[in-house]
Amino acid sequence: MKSIGSLKRLAHYVKPYKIAFMLVLFFTVATVLFNSALPYITGLPTTEIARNVFNNEAINFPYIWKTLIWILIVGVGYSASQLLSGILITNVVQSAMKDLRQDIDKKINRLPVSYFDTNQQGDVLSRVTNDVDVVSGAMQQALIGIVNAFLSIVMAVGMMFYINVPMALLAIIMIPAALLISRYIISKSQTYFNSMQNALGDMNGFVQENMTGFNVNKVYGREAQTLEGFKAANHKLRYFGFRSAFISGLMMPLVQMTAYLAYIVVAVLGSYYVIGGVIVVGQLQAFIQYIWQVSQPMGNVTQLSALLQSASAAARRVFEILDEPEEKENKVDVPLPETFEGNVSFEHVSFAYTPTKPLIEDLNFTVKAGQTVAVVGPTGAGKTTLINLLMRFYDVNKGAIRIDGIDTKQMARSDVRSLFGMVLQDAWLYEGTIADNIRFGKLGATDYEVVDAAKTANVDHFIRTMPEGYDMFINSEGDNVSLGQKQLMTIARAVISDPKILILDEATSSVDTRLEALIQKAMDKVMEGRTSFVIAHRLSTIRDADLILVMDQGSIIEQGNHETLLAKGGFYANLYNSQFSEEAE
What we know:
Blueprint: H1 2-9, H2 11-14, H3 18-54, H4 61-110, H5 113-118, H6 121-163, H7 165-171, H8 174-212, H9 214-219, H10 223-249, H11 251-276, H12 281-322, E1 344-351, E2 360-367, E3 372-376, H13 383-390, E4 398-403, E5 406-407, H14 413-418, E6 420-423, E7 432-433, H15 434-439, H16 447-456, H17 460-465, E8 473-474, H18 483-496, E9 501-505, H19 513-527, E10 531-535, E11 547-552, E12 555-560, H20 562-568, H21 571-584
Parallel strand pairs: 3-10, 3-11, 6-9, 9-10
Antiparallel strand pairs: 1-2, 1-4, 4-5, 7-8, 11-12
Helix pairs in contact: 1-12, 3-4, 3-6, 3-12, 4-6, 6-7, 6-8, 6-12, 8-10, 8-11, 8-12, 10-12, 11-12, 16-18, 18-19, 20-21
């Protein structure tokens, strides 16, 4: 089974801590040995007292006190060993989970953009957090519990045979019976545990998506529909959760039933043997305790089975991320120049997200260093895809994209992306100070460079009017600053990285006219001397572009400067005139 195989893979993360784990096994064995000795030792005073009474002798108190001291020693040894094994296993598991989380984090940074385009962010987050926590909890509780149970059963069965073979043979019939019951129930419940973890990921994805768009839901009165969607996801989780818990919960009573049957048989046969002098009463007492030492670990394993099945499903989901194909980093085949100028050319480029639906076919254009290129066209024309290809978020299916004559496929992705600065329509800031957010473009930037970049982006004045200025803390949602301020800060972040090529993707589409002018002024400063790609819906902002590419259905249908395209009276002219008419109205 894939899920069980995923649990086995966790051994890789335990291996670096094998010394501590061996100590865990040592103290676990010690715990089992002490626990196995207790029933036999506690039966000795009972046997001695029964013998004294039967022979009309005085109670042998010195012997009884001696055995009680041994019981105390064994009991303390049992408790100490159990405590030490618990502390050590906690350290091993948490260290292993720390390594697993680090591997997941490294893996996520090596995954291609296409993975996040095709998977819900909430589901990915659920795998990284919730599923890893489930695995951690299972290892914490079950790893030592199963080892303890196995050793306890072996030792208890061994002591049973030492006391009386026929009674032991009758008693251990419950072990294969319990195993068959457990195996059958696990085979039925595992499917539900897998479905439950997937349903939990779906629900987390739904919640994350709707919490992110909470204001939009409110504005459009989508509360009722959102509630219905959550109810459906919640009902699905309940459906699989109930069935997985119910079916796995049948194991405990069924296994315990086999133990009670063994109690009855041993009690009858053992009483007969005591009367016949085959065994003494203390041995019967110890034997019954050993049955309990077999049934209790088996009961514990059945209780842990639900946790293990849930963990195996969670581990499968975690390792699915770790097994995802990574963004392939090619070997650099050509020597790179010390400095790039910023010449860009698309040569017979074709691309499709899915093979059956080609989006861009035989795309050709050339941009000289320092030129400003505007990319316009209707939604779905391929504008954003063009940027994704330029940044090597995706690789072209055919043709080549060249920067200063070098095919980007012959360059390391990190080298390609180091040439670019981006300002997106959705201004993204992370939790931290304003200075840290600007410094994100160049982590080693000095305070002077941060301020200088902010001045270039026309945001220095705004920042200084805020509480604590550059040290003001941006919250996790980034909503304690205005949209325009956020956009200007992202421009400052692009400035500080000093890119050779700048990408401005709808950077002014969500702000008012006054702020648009301010942002445009900042962008003009940033674009000066740099090759710039501007995606804009407001055509009035790109009239001064050196080259305008008009895209439709993945192809460039027109190209030229503003005046040339207007004179043609084609697609661009119609689009521009329609916007001009709307603005006039």
